[in-house]
Design brief:
By secondary structure, the chain is an alpha/beta fold. Helix content is 42%, strand content 20%. α7 packs across α8. The strands form three sheets. It has a ten-stranded mixed β-sheet, sandwiched between helices. Strands 6-7 form a two-stranded antiparallel sheet. It has two domains: 1-102 and 261-364, Isopropylmalate Dehydrogenase (3-Layer(aba) Sandwich), CATH 3.40.718.10; 120-255, 3-Layer(aba) Sandwich (Isopropylmalate Dehydrogenase), CATH 3.40.718.10. The longest helix is centred in the N-terminal third of the chain and has 20 residues, at 13-32. The protein contains 13 helices and 14 strands. Bound molecules: nicotinamide-adenine-dinucleotide.
Length: 364
């Protein structure tokens, strides 16, 4: 398969982790006989420094003319410490999502058995959890009318959804469920909110086209409780922008560390793959960032954008074997045991490559 991938490292540890994600993609290409052409572009703080623009036109042109994007993160302490700065790194991220029409954010929450102890939830509750979130990205209170009245003493943000926005992400969720345990849990607040009633009615309509997939509805408050009480009861979770924002951060605790979670933002064209973490100024340059979220993002890219399931699973297997062999970055290390071997960012990436090489020799 011949494909063009843009590497968009961004700022802080974004650069460190995407370096390892790219190496894994190169390894997959050589092992499985694919031709991946790579190019790089700037975004965020680096782009502001170089051009004054967090998403320069040159970057946007490259992004619109590729098959997939592996992104790191944006952010810099300069902006976090001064909210009055007008040009900011995250503007690049929001503009990129809008320009590329990325309306669905997919976040797989999968716990590796070896990390059961790294979570704050009891291992017996967590074991076997495997959830795929579909969070809508273009509607809701983020984009509805907002403002102040009564001399600034009343504020409002309108929660708004259009039927087509719900339809297109619902199709994606049902299609994904067909490749998994065939269950969709749609989360809303239809007992109170009109936009949630439109959401529920639309999901029910779309669900009729997927009779082989079980559809259930949960109110967001109850879903938030059940996620922690019985995470194994979920397969695909479909939800709006605001509820998805909150629930996916809650669910990240199931996986133990920010350094272990990848996400995909997809629309009708190119897909964007990134760790859920940010640029982590506190550990930038120390070489200790966990690259596994970026490597898992590469696995998602292969699966979702290129349909390369076997290649994607080879990466996940390599991560499992690495964890099983006791290798950890500091964020996922268990202080209670002396059996683990701590690796830095680069060494963790190299160990994954070694596992991939061995697996390929074993099957070929
Ligand atoms: P963060 O995700 O960068 O870091 C939170 C904590 O998790 C930190 O202690 C960090 O050291 C740790 N951490 C994160 N990723 C890790 C990894 N791979 N390995 C080991 N530890 C890891 O969130 P923050 O500190 O709130 O934000 C830092 C900057 O990132 C801010 O400027 C923020 O705006 C930006 N940010 C960007 C994105 C994005 O680009 N998508 C997302 C979130 C935050």
């Amino acid at each position: 398969m011949k494909k063009k991938i843009i590497i968009l490292p961004g700022d802080g540890i974004g650069k460190e982790v995407t370096t390892e994600g790219k190496k894994v993609l190169e390894k997959i290409a050589s092992s499985f006989g694919h031709e991946f052409e790579f190019d790089e572009a700037v975004i965020g703080h680096d782009a502001i420094e170089a051009t004054g623009n967090p998403l320069p036109d040159e970057t946007l042109i490259k992004l619109k003319n590729c098959d997939a994007i592996l992104f790191g993160a944006v952010g810099h302490p300069k902006y976090d410490n001064d909210p009055t700065l007008k040009v900011r790194p995250e503007q690049g991220l929001l503009k990129m999502r809008k320009e590329l029409g990325l309306y669905a954010n997919l976040r797989p929450i999968k716990l590796f058995d070896e990390l059961l102890e790294a979570s704050s939830i009891k291992p017996e509750v967590l074991k076997g959890s495997d959830i795929l979130f579909f969070r809508e990205l273009t509607g809701d209170v983020y984009f509805g009318e907002k403002g102040r009245k009564d001399d600034g003493n009343t504020a409002y943000d309108v929660m708004i959804y259009q039927r087509y926005e719900v339809e297109r992400i619902a199709h994606k969720a049902f299609q994904a469920a067909r490749t998994r345990k065939k269950k969709v849990t749609s989360v809303d607040k239809a007992n109170v909110l009109e936009s949630s009633r439109l959401w529920r009615e639309t999901v029910q309509e779309i669900g009729k086209q997927y009779p082989d997939v079980q559809l259930e509805h949960q109110f967001v408050d109850s879903a938030a409780m059940k996620l922690i009480q019985n995470p194994r009861s979920f397969d695909v979770v479909l939800t709006g922008n605001l509820f998805g924002d909150i629930l996916t951060d809650e669910a990240s605790q199931i996986a133990g560390s920010m350094g272990m979670l990848a996400s995909a933002s997809v629309g009708d064209k190119v897909g964007l793959y990134e760790p859920i973490h940010g640029s982590a100024h506190d550990i930038t340059g120390k070489g200790i960032a966990n690259p596994l979220a970026s490597i898992l993002s590469a696995a998602l890219l292969l699966d979702i954008s290129f349909g390369l399931k076997e290649e994607s699973e080879a990466i996940i297997k390599a991560i499992e074997q690495t964890l099983k062999a006791g290798y950890r970055t500091t964020d996922i290390a268990d202080a209670k045991t002396s059996k683990e071997k701590i690796l830095n960012t680069q060494a963790m990436g190299s160990y994954i490559l070694k596992q991939l090489s061995q697996a390929h020799v074993a099957v070929s």
